[in-house]
Amino acid sequence: MKISPLYLFLFAAVVTASSYSTLSSVPIPYVNVSIPPEIITAAFTSAAASQALCLSNDVRNDVDNGLCNEVVIIYARGTFGSGNIGCDVGVAFVDAVSAAEPARVIVQGVPYNADILGYLNGGSEEGAKNMAALIEKAASQCPCAKIVLGGFSQGAQVTHKAVARIAATLSTKVVGIVLFGDPDNDQPFPGVPEKNVLTFCNLDDPICFGIPLPILGHQKYKKDVAKAAAWVAGKV
Questions:
Q1: Which of these is catalytic: 88, 184, 205, 224?
Q2: Cα 62–67–68 angle (5° rounding)?
Q3: For position 107, what pLDDT does the model report?
């Protein structure tokens, strides 16, 4: 994969910083450099802080509360995201779909410990297990509902792993999957047609290129929620 000059400049700065660190570091695919863990932690913490102001509720538990509707959104937040859907992208996305399809949508967030280690391991196994269980619960509790999955950053990784866990009969109930800043954006979903998957990955988002720094384009997906909601409306 070709790396842009912007990334190479960033890597040069990171290598300089790493020369003053005695901690173990995280190797970066495609480029022979590593990023010290304290830099990764600071970047993720800063990214989460920048999304800390919620315009509406960042905890959604409609499925767990026994509710049903025509459309069920199950959403996984990103690393350090608040609540169970996360501020900014998560809240904006589910609110946009709800506005596009009035009185037809319920929302369930995925509970999991959205820490850095989970992201670096390819997505939290706990999150994947919980999301798969929620898909099963939604399908059983609301058999006529159309299920939409979504995730941001590590939440996208969790979504990949969750779909791989569910039975093929459940996959057919998933009418759409929407992902923002997906580290696994080139990976298909077993049992889900490609036409039912919409991924937003900015060209200046390092996370989409396997680089563990949630900077630049990784913080700019709120602009895509209107398009995402319109796409979901066309699926439900």
A1: 205
A2: 110
A3: 98
- Provide the 10 A C-beta neighbour count for residue 5: 7
C-alpha dihedral sign at 178, 179, 184, 185: positive
Question: What pLDDT score does 46 carry?
Answer: 57
What's the confidence (pLDDT) of residue 153?
Answer: 97
Per run of 10 residues, the mean pLDDT along the chain (length 236 residues) is 44 38 42 54 58 74 98 97 94 97 98 95 97 98 98 98 96 97 94 96 94 90 97 98
How far apart, in whole angstroms, are the C-alpha atoms of residue 35 and residue 184?
A: 20
Which one of the listed residues 62, 153, 182, 184 is annotated catalytic?
A: 153
Give the active site residue among 58, 88, 160, 218: 218
The verdict on whether 218 is a catalytic residue reads: yes
**Catalytic residue list contains 19:** no
CB hemisphere CA count around 136 (13 angstroms):
13
The DSSP result for 211-229, as a single string, is -----GGGG-GGGGHHHHH
What does the pLDDT read at residue 226? Answer: 97
Catalytic-residue membership of 205 = yes
Half-sphere exposure of 155 (CA within 13 A, CB side): 29
